[in-house]
Specification:
single chain, 651 residues, 7-stranded mixed β-sheet, 6-stranded mixed β-sheet, disordered N terminus
Length: 651
C-alpha cells in the first residue's frame, strides 16, 4: 500500500501510527486530531463488518493515555471485557486487519495472543481481568521484575462477584497495580446494581461538571508526574468526598482512589495514570466516559449505544444494512411474553443481557417481573432458585457460553433441590465471528451430567415455541432450552411423533437412523436425500428433548442397521455419547457413529465456514453415512424415495 493510499484510508496522523511509541511522541494538539481520526476509522471499518462499535468509541482517549504512560508489551494491559480493545489494536499497529474484522483471516474481535505481543487475555468473559492482574503482579514481585500491570475494567464488569474477590486480594497483597474503571454506566445495557447507583449519583450530581472542570484546571497547572500531581488529585477528591461514593468504598478496602477523571481528556487521564503508576501500590483510576462518544447514532441509541451490531450498518443512521429477518431470539422473546400473559408465576432473569437475549421484550410488558442482576451469572442462577422456592417459575436467559460460569449453581443449588427453573441458552453451538470464547458448544455435554435436568433443542420457530411451553410446564426440576444465533430456520413439520421424538423423514428401508439435533433438522433432511440416491433408506428424527435420552429414540435405533447422530456441540459427553450409553444399557447392539464439534479452540469465522471446516455440512455427513452403511454389506440396491407427505405432516 502506498503512503497516499494509507493516508486516505486512515487519516494523516493515524497512518503514521505503527506502535505505541508513535503515540508517545505526539503533542496534545496532535492527540486530539488522532482521536478524531481513530473514531472516523472505527466507524468506517466496523460499519462494513459489524462489531463492538459503541464501547470502543468511548475509550479512544483513555486508550491513547494508557499507551503514552505505560510501555506495552513489557507493561501488561488487560482489558475487561476484551471487546473494548479495538483502539488498543489500532495503536499497536493492526489497522490493516480491520478490513476483515471478525472474519476468517482477519482480526479477532477480542485480544488475541496470535495477533500481537501486546495481547494477553483471550477469554473475554467479564469480571476476570482483576484476578489475572492480581496473579501477574504477584508473579512479577516474586521474580523481582519492575513491570506495571494495568487492568481496564468496565463499571459493568464490577457487578460481577469475581471482581470483588480479586479486589480483596489485591488490597491485601499491596503490589503495584493500576485498575482503570471505565465508567460509562453500561455493560450491554445500563449497568445494574448498587455500584451502578453510586456511580450514577456522581454523574447526576449538579456539581459534577464543575468537578470535572476543577480536575482539568488542576491538571493543566500541575506537573504531570510525581507526588505533587497525586496530592492535587487527592485534594480535589477529598473536597468532593460526599459526592464521590466509590472513594470511600475502595479506600475502605485499602486501595487508593483517583478520580473522577474526564475519560475523554487525554491529558487528564494521562496525568492520573502517571500518578497511579508512581504510587507504588494498588490504585483505582476512575475515568468517566460516554459509550458511543462522538458518533450521533450511537449516542442516541437508548437500548445499548450501538454496543455490537452483528453485521454491516449504515453510517448515517446506524441501522443494519441487511433486510430484517426473524431471529431465534425474537421468536423466544415473543413466545415468552405470550406465556407470561397466561402464567403470572413466570418471571425473567438475565445477566446484563436483556436486549441481546430477548428478556427486554418481557420487561417492557411486565417490568416488575424481570430482574437484570448485572454480570453475575452465578447469582442469577441462585436467585432463580430462590424465586422458584418462593412459588414462581423463573426463566433465566443468557448466552450459552456464559452459563458455563454457573455450572456449580445449576448442579447443587437448582437441580439438587429439584427446582422448576428454565434456562434459555441463546447463541448455542458454533456462533462464528466472536470466536472460541463465545462458542456455545459446551452446554449439552457439561449440563448433560446434571441429574434431573432436561435439555430441549428446537429445530425451528414452531418447535421453539412448543418446547418453551413444555419447559415452563415442568415443575419437578430444571430445564434447558438451547438454540443458535441468527435467522431462524424455516418450519420443518414432522411426519409423525413417537413419544417425544419427531420423525421428519422415513423410507421403505430402515438402513440408517439419522438423529439430527436441534437446528440440524434441515441438514438431516438433505443428508437423507443424498444417501437415498445411493440406494439406502434413512429415517430422520429430531429428539426434541435430548437429555435424558428418550426411550422411544432407543427403540427406533433398535429397528435400524446403523445409527448416526449429528449435533452442534462437543462430541465428548454430547448427545451421541448419551445415546450410545442408553443403547448399551438397553442391550441394543446397532453400531452408532456420532458427529459433532471436536473439543478444541476453533478460530473465528462465519458459522458456515466453521461447520465446513468441521465436516458438518450435508455433503460431508452424507458421504460419511454412505461410507459407513455401505461398509456393513457389499451389496448395492436401487435408490429409494424419501417419504415427505405434506398431508401426513399435518397429522
Amino acid at each position: 500500500m502506498s503512503v497516499e493510499e494509507d493516508t486516505a484510508n486512515h487519516g494523516p496522523l493515524l497512518a503514521t501510527v505503527r506502535g505505541p511509541q508513535d503515540v508517545k511522541r505526539m503533542s496534545a494538539e496532535q492527540l486530539d486530531i488522532l482521536a478524531a481520526e481513530i473514531r472516523d476509522f472505527l466507524i468506517a471499518k466496523v460499519s462494513r463488518t459489524g462489531g463492538h462499535i459503541g464501547p470502543n468509541l468511548g475509550v479512544v482517549e483513555l486508550t491513547l493515555a494508557l499507551h503514552r504512560v505505560f510501555d506495552s508489551p513489557r507493561d501488561r494491559l488487560l482489558f475487561d471485557t476484551g471487546h473494548q480493545a479495538y483502539v488498543h489494536k489500532i495503536v499497536t499497529g493492526r489497522q490493516e486487519g480491520f478490513d476483515r474484522l471478525r472474519q476468517r483471516g482477519g482480526l479477532s474481535g477480542y485480544p488475541n495472543q496470535a495477533e500481537s505481543e501486546h495481547d494477553l487475555i483471550e477469554n473475554s468473559h467479564a469480571s476476570t481481568a482483576l484476578s489475572y492482574a492480581d496473579g501477574l503482579a504477584k508473579a512479577y514481585a516474586l521474580r523481582g521484575e519492575r513491570r506495571s500491570v494495568v487492568a481496564v475494567v468496565g463499571d459493568g464488569a464490577l457487578t460481577g462477584g469475581m471482581c470483588w474477590e480479586a479486589l480483596n486480594n489485591i488490597a491485601t497483597a499491596r503490589n503495584p497495580l493500576v485498575i482503570v474503571v471505565n465508567d460509562n454506566g453500561r455493560s450491554y445495557s445500563p449497568t445494574i446494581g448498587g455500584l451502578a447507583d453510586h456511580l450514577s449519583s456522581l454523574r447526576l450530581n449538579p456539581g459534577y461538571e464543575k468537578v470535572l472542570d476543577t480536575v482539568k484546571d488542576a491538571l493543566g497547572s500541575t506537573p504531570l508526574v510525581g507526588k505533587p500531581m497525586y496530592e492535587v488529585l487527592h485534594a480535589v477528591k477529598k473536597g468532593i468526598k460526599d459526592a464521590v461514593a466509590p472513594q470511600a468504598m475502595f479506600e475502605d478496602l485499602g486501595i487508593k482512589y483517583v478520580g473522577p477523571v474526564d475519560g475523554h481528556d487525554v491529558a487528564a487521564v494521562e496525568s492520573a495514570l502517571r500518578a497511579a503508576k508512581n504510587f507504588g501500590g494498588p490504585v483505582i483510576v476512575h475515568a468517566v466516559t460516554r459509550k458511543g462518544y462522538g458518533y450521533r447514532p450511537a449516542e442516541e441509541d437508548e437500548a445499548d449505544c450501538l454496543h455490537g451490531p452483528s453485521s454491516a450498518f449504515d453510517i448515517e443512521t446506524g441501522q443494519l444494512v441487511a433486510a430484517p429477518s426473524v431471529k431465534w431470539t425474537h421468536v423466544f422473546a415473543d413466545e415468552l411474553v405470550a406465556v407470561a400473559d397466561e402464567r403470572p408465576d413466570v418471571v425473567g432473569i438475565t445477566a446484563a443481557m436483556a436486549e441481546p437475549t430477548g428478556i427486554a421484550t418481557l420487561a417492557r410488558r411486565y417490568p416488575e417481573r424481570v430482574y437484570d442482576v448485572g454480570i453475575a451469572e452465578q447469582h442469577a442462577v441462585v436467585s432463580a432458585a430462590g424465586l422458584a422456592m418462593g412459588g414462581l417459575h423463573p426463566v433465566v436467559a443468557v448466552y450459552a457460553t456464559f452459563l458455563n460460569r454457573a455450572f456449580d449453581q445449576v448442579l447443587l443449588d437448582v437441580a439438587m433441590h429439584k427446582l422448576p427453573v428454565t434456562f434459555v441458552l441463546d447463541r448455542a453451538g458454533i456462533t462464528g465471528p466472536d470466536g472460541p470464547s463465545h462458542y456455545g458448544i459446551w452446554d449439552m455435554s457439561a449440563f448433560g451430567v446434571v441429574p434431573g435436568l432436561r435439555i430441549a433443542a428446537p429445530r425451528d420457530a414452531a418447535t421453539l415455541r412448543e418446547e418453551l411451553r413444555e419447559a415452563v410446564a415442568i415443575d419437578d426440576g430444571p430445564t434447558v432450552l438451547r438454540f443458535p444465533t441468527g435467522t431462524v430456520a424455516a418450519d420443518l413439520p414432522a411426519l409423525r411423533r413417537v413419544g417425544s421424538v419427531d420423525v421428519l423423514a422415513e423410507s421403505a428401508r430402515t438402513d440408517v437412523l439419522l438423529v439430527a439435533v436441534g437446528a440440524f433438522g434441515h441438514l438431516g433432511m438433505e443428508v437423507a436425500a443424498r444417501v437415498a440416491e445411493q440406494g439406502y433408506g434413512v429415517t430422520v428424527v429430531d429428539p426434541r428433548w435430548v437429555r435424558p435420552v428418550p426411550a422411544e429414540l432407543v427403540e427406533l435405533a433398535a429397528g435400524h442397521r446403523l445409527v448416526v447422530s449429528v449435533e452442534d456441540g462437543v462430541r465428548v459427553g454430547g448427545v451421541g455419547d448419551a445415546l450410545a450409553q442408553a443403547m448399551r444399557d438397553a442391550d441394543v447392539r446397532v453400531p452408532l457413529r456420532d458427529l459433532g464439534v471436536p473439543a478444541d479452540w476453533h478460530p473465528h469465522g462465519s458459522r458456515a465456514q466453521i461447520l465446513a471446516d468441521l465436516r458438518l455440512t450435508a455433503q460431508d455427513v452424507a458421504r460419511d453415512v454412505t461410507g459407513w452403511i455401505s461398509g456393513l454389506d457389499g451389496t448395492s440396491v436401487e435408490p429409494v424415495r424419501i417419504v415427505a407427505d405434506d398431508a401426513a405432516a399435518q397429522n
